[in-house]
Amino acid sequence: MMLITIGVTAKKTPKVIILCFHDIDGKGKYSIKSKELESIFNLVNKNNYKVLNLRQWDKLRIKKGTIDRNMVIFTFDDGYRSLFRNVIPLLTKFKFAATFFIYLDRYNSRSKFYQNLASLPINLEVGAHSFSHSHLKVIKKSKIIYQELFLAKKKLEYLISKPVYSFAWPYGSYSKKLVELAKLAGYKLQVSTSYRSYYWDESKDVYGRFTITKKNPINQVKKILKQIGGLGF
Predict the structure, then answer these.
(1) What CATH class is the domain 15-225?
(2) What's the pLDDT tens digit per position in 57-72?
(3) Hey, which of 26, 125, 136, 168 would disulfide with 101, CB 3.0 to 4.6 Å?
């Protein structure tokens, strides 16, 4: 006998996308305007996406917590000064979390930039982006690899007086061996630049991100969000 169920809809598994931004109101193909970033934040807020930083999402994923919404994770690479001038005020306005990836050679260790990073609230995570933003896959010297992965983590943690949980591969340049070395260095989560979405509890060694560029960034984000859908499950 055929059993017919009426009015029951299978619950969809929520998804997550990780967006990668760079400078705001700056120059170059990866810089977007602060008004555009605000419009993107409005879009995410209006459609009721859950916004987390990478560490929050990873911990939630590991604990198998209950999630009933699709998620967006904002990441900002390289440590531009626009973080404090443009990005953080907007994140604060929308009460959004985010992850900032910093490479150590960008500023002198006595720079006020690191003091400001140390004073960030817990929802604004600081992750490592290597020591000198090198193409790590082509580097052969173990001493340099140690500096880019291990020393970068230790020094960044010292400068900001906080644990560093996440690592972003510069230029998306990594290998299977490097991924294992990053784990040994103590990074709990690694991200690159491949363009794809994930189920919220999907486990990977390296997670891809969508890099947003200067040309029509709002439309870029709209198209990306279509991959995971809007309101309702």
Answers:
(1) alpha beta
(2) 999 988 877 788 999 9
(3) 168
